Amino acid sequence: MKNIKNAKWIRHPEVHVDKAVDFCKSFAAKGKIASATLEITALGVFEAKINGKKVGDFVFAPGWTSYNKRLQVETCDVTDLIKANNRIVIGVAPGWRGNYMAAPFHYAGNYIGAKEVAMLCALEIVYENGETEVVYSGKDWKAKESKVRYSNIYNGYIYDCDYVDAKPKSAVEFPHPDNILIDRVGEKIIEVKRVVAKKLIITPKGETVIDFGQNLTGYVEFTIKGNAGEMATIRHAEVLDAEGNFYTENLRGAKAEAVFICNGKKQTYKPPYNFYGFRYICLDGFSDEIKLKNFTAVVVHSEMKRTGYFECSDARINKLFSNIVWGQRGNFLDVPTDCPQRDERLGWTGDAQVFIKTAAYNYDVERFFIKWLGDLRADQTVWGTVPHVIPDVFGVDDECSSAWADAATVCPWQIYLSYANKQILEDSADSMKDYIDYIKTRLVDGLWVQHWHFGDWLNLDASTAEDCSKGTDKLLIATAFFIYSSEIFIKTLKILGKESEEYEALRNESIKAFLNKYMKEGRIATDYATQTACALALHFGITDNAKETAAQLAELVSECGHIKTGFVGTPYILHALSDNGYTKLAYDLVLREEYPSWLFSVKMGATTIWEHWDSVREDGTMWSTTMNSFNHYAYGCVGDWLYGDAAGIKADESNPGYANIIFRPLTDERLDYVKASLETRKGLVKSEWKRENGKVTYTFVVPEESTATAYIGGKKYVLKAGTNEITE
Ligand code: BGC
Question: What is the fold of 4-184?
Answer without folding.
Answer: Jelly Rolls (2.60.120)
